[in-house]
Inverse folding.
């Protein structure tokens, strides 16, 4: 999964899609995920990072990450190979 190349992401979690004019806000964990996606990290690398960085269990990370990726797809903020 790749984020749209022209997607703008601020350090405060403001996300802007210039192609559509849509804007969104994400929480700090969402921002962390988006930054890792922008850096080209794989879903497995992001999952591992979340497990190491936040005090949560694997099942919660799996569910929340799946939901977040699904939301990105629904908002058309991603491209697939």
């Amino acid at each position: 999964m790749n984020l749209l190349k022209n997607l703008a992401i601020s350090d405060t979690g403001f996300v802007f899609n210039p192609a559509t004019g849509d804007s969104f806000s994400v929480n700090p964990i969402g921002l962390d995920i988006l930054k890792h996606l922008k850096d080209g990290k794989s879903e497995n690398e992001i999952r591992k990072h979340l497990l190491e960085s936040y005090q949560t269990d694997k099942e919660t990370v799996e569910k929340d990450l799946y939901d977040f990726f699904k939301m990105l797809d629904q908002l058309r903020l991603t491209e697939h190979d």
Summary: Residues 20 and 64 are 26 Å apart (CA to CA). The beta strands are 2-3, 8-9, 14-17, 22-25, 78-79.
